[in-house]
Amino acid sequence: MESALGIEQVGDIARAGGLFRLAFGSGDYRRDSGTNAEDLAMAHPRTRLVTASRIGNLPGPNRRTTVGEDPAVLHEKTRHAVSLGLTGKLCLPHNHIAIVNNALSPTHDEVAWARGFLTDFEARGRLIRDGSDLPRLGRAQRIADLATAYSVPSA
User: Fold this and answer.
1) Which residues are registered as beta bridge partners of 88?
2) What is the largest CA-CA distance in the chain?
3) More exposed terminus of the chain, fewer Cβ within 10 Å: N or C?
4) SS3 89
5) In DSSP terms, which residues pair with 64 in a beta bridge?
6) Phi, psi of 64 (to 5 degrees)
């Protein structure tokens, strides 16, 4: 998605046949909409893509990396994207790949929490205690899957 119109219609686009993932072209979107690059200004279109991806039964959306971002800024921006629900970044420079993969990976503490929750959930016979168990279960499973994909051990 690279325009205001694309963001506005992203739900319909996500449900279209043959689509495998959404991606956000923030530079073109900013040029089209007049929005700046600050995280707050970009939160709306990014979360629209996350919600549309879920509705369209797609994996979380990607955003592109910005050429020239120093490693610390790239890591911080990627962690922010993860906090919004984005699950990847399109890397232009090859040296961004390791930084992005590290930032997309769950932390050791997150992995320890997820594995602990899943172990406890199994030990109680997969019993749902209250309305917060299902969201925590989903989060724990996502973190455990990411930990496996990125080979992240628990703390």
Assistant:
1) 62
2) 53
3) C
4) strand
5) 90
6) -90, 160
